[in-house]
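Need tokens for this chain, all 361 residues.
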Amino acid sequence: MVDPEKLLLPHAILEKKDSTALDYFYRWSQSFDNMEKVDADSFHLLPLLYKRLVSTPKPVPYLKQLEGIYRLCLMRNSMLFHKAFSIFDGLKKIGVPFITIKGGALVAAYYEDIGARMISDVDFLVREQDFEKTLRFLKERGWNSKYGWLLNNPAKFIHSLCLRNSEGFEFDVHWRAFYQCPWDGADLALWDHTEEVAFQGKTIRILNTTQQMLHNCVQGVPWNAVPSIRWIVDVMKILEKRSGSINWELLVSESSTRNLSLTMWHTLNFLKSEFHADISDEVLESLKQLPKDIREIRLFDILTSPPSFGNNFRKKWLIHGFGVGDVSNCKKMLLFLGFLKKDFHQKPSHLRERIKKWFMW
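Here are the structure tokens for all 361 residues:
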């Protein structure tokens, strides 16, 4: 549950009436005496807050600080996309199809200003069969695993790797769009229905609007010590810019196929009740009435609860179960042992070596 005081910030950004937006901002800013005390997740929304408030007729506290944050975001995003375009051109040359996802796709297609939406990295999706080829290409150009993961034969539940270069820039390479959906062929339909947008003189391939909605709503579910609110503004921007392009029947169908109907009902119902999102009651009722796999319910409960050893183990077991499909419990357990061993060997290397010393593995 997000603290109501924290929700004042997205309300200030999304509110259309200037006086009401300023009121939300004044109430939000009363909880601290300088911008340095803003939590990390809220900080990522400050460039958007600046863009919303800069043209309001009344004086705005901290406006100069907000302008400085916006300009720093504009500069860093420009540098990050410059790096990304170089990588994207290289991937095209070696014949690797890719889809730009998450923050990079949102900036390209749904925000009107490259500096308005703060991003810390650029995420892109490749087909699973192109994963190793992509990593070899990136390693040759100085991109290495941020956390020391082994970059081969990944465990099925892992859906992405974060890479960093010597300058500190980061890319996330995904080979599965949804970590809750690790089964073979889960993304085939997604690849068949993408779209292209013009951005900064380039053509970028992104998810279509329906899949974009699904993908960004999923980002808002997992528990975090600092509850996430960025996804709220992202999804509301999608609805604001392209609501007419959303195939709601397909969204409900995809939610069911991916065992995400509980997630989608939870997030869309929240957006409709808290932010008056333009989502029909029929869509919400369809999601609510869909049959729920007991594993989907359990995974949702785990993802929305504080992390623990038991929850982490149960999450791995459930996602492993989705990946192996309809096999006997005996075979599932045997496969799970191999799954855990792969997972162990992909932990950050310093941790892996310490555990090996303890257990003489």
